[in-house]
Input
Amino acid sequence: MSDVFYDPDDMPAMADTLHGLWRDGDSDSDGGGTVGWAASEARDGVQDCIDVLREQGFEVVEVDRVTRPLLRDPEQAADFAVYRLFRRTTSPSIVSNPTPITTAGC
Output
């Protein structure tokens, strides 16, 4: 996917589409499941879109970020990022908000 992180309000529909297309990996079969890749200019609002995708059951990991001159104006530059998407197989609360384990009272 390229430059799909524009409007956080569009992310639930995109997540629904991805869920419909996604194939989970199975350790008994050859090959894994679906791997999603996205590239986007790193601009305001991208993190909001990623947060919504996480709420919809996906993890999004930034793999790389580079600064490049713009084609329309080589005097200007912008940051571009590559992301890996995968469907979460555990509860979002377990992945996103782990409960700290303490030894107090033991």
